[in-house]
């Protein structure tokens, strides 16, 4: 890849607007390409050789905020690490291929991104992945508690509505839990809501912001189109908003069906994961006003975990932002999602306590 192409990809990542968030300050963008100007930051990807892991490894290698990129998987890591390591960008890449190397993979990490686990096939719900992925997440989080207890964890593995509560319980048991360092990655819901809204509203997609709240499965995904900006250039009926909401909620299933048994979203998820990890790094580096949606420990509803806009800073999640004004349709959606989200949270907590 030509350096100019690398610069433009990285610039696009740095410049894009968050889920209700701000663009990077111009000074930060200009400084980011001088490798010695931004602090050393280590990012670890667990599940790095998978469908999400590979393109995510590529995107993190292109991120000039990353100085060390640690790629861990139980299969296929050496090839991915060798391949990505040849790219002439700042991050030094190391691959780790077995459980006895997990400690070294994690040590010193600032951000740990977890896309390890099995994806859906057509006809499955995300909850159908629980039996396999809960155990994977539990063992990876046990290692995080031991080797990098201060890292910000970006949980991608599904069902996110349950894997985040599992991680919280594992960290509590280990005595390392810090709620500001545990984030369920719901950025793909925001990415989809922005894309679908831009198409219907006839506004430039790069300018669009749409908060998505709740959780990350079916009706628990609640896009707040009443707060979408910029205002629509087309007149959007209630039926249009209902259709946009449903398409956002079913976005994952749309990809699972199109892939017809070959997995779920990987490329758009890698993009979304790279956007969220980049926001965490910017926050750690002290860039102000970094706001993204994420599924975090929360008190903004009666549920202990909930996705909403959060402000990221030097300590991870520094503020969980409120829901803002909701339309009647969104208020109804909020009440409807609560029982399912509550039971997914309880399932995760029960698993972690009993295993
Ligand atoms: N949060 C979100 O928005 C999204 C979440 N996902 C979820 O991400 C997960 C991964 O999806 P894909 O990358 O498509 O799956 P994949 O099967 O292509 O890759 C998963 C990788 O995890 C690895 N793995 C399994 N157990 C491991 C362990 N104990 N330690 C380290 N690595 C391990 C596998 O070897 C494999 O390389 C799935 O659970 C999927 O449902 C997918 C899309 C969006
Ligand atoms: O749908 C799935 O299984 C994967 C996922 O979470 C998404 O694409 O949003």
From TrEMBL:
Entry similarity comment: Belongs to the LDH/MDH superfamily. MDH type 1 family.
Molecular function GO terms recorded: L-malate dehydrogenase (NAD+) activity
Active site, UniProt feature: 216 (proton acceptor)
Complex formation: Homodimer.
Chain positions recorded as substrate binding sites: 120, 126, 158, 192
One GO cellular component, as annotated: mitochondrion
Organism per entry: Ananas comosus (Pineapple)
InterPro entries: L-lactate/malate_DH, Lactate/malate_DH_C, Lactate/malate_DH_N, Lactate_DH/Glyco_Ohase_4_C, Malate_DH_AS, Malate_DH_type1, NAD(P)-bd_dom_sf
Enzyme class: oxidoreductase
Oxidoreductase as UniProt keyword: yes
Domain Lactate/malate dehydrogenase N-terminal: 42-184
UniProt catalytic activity: (S)-malate + NAD(+) = oxaloacetate + NADH + H(+)
SUPFAM superfamilies reported for this sequence: LDH C-terminal domain-like (SSF56327), NAD(P)-binding Rossmann-fold domains (SSF51735)
Alphabetically ordered keywords of this record: NAD, Oxidoreductase, Tricarboxylic acid cycle
Enzyme Commission designation: 1.1.1.37
Key word Nucleotidyltransferase present: no
GO BP term, pick one: tricarboxylic acid cycle
Protein name: Malate dehydrogenase
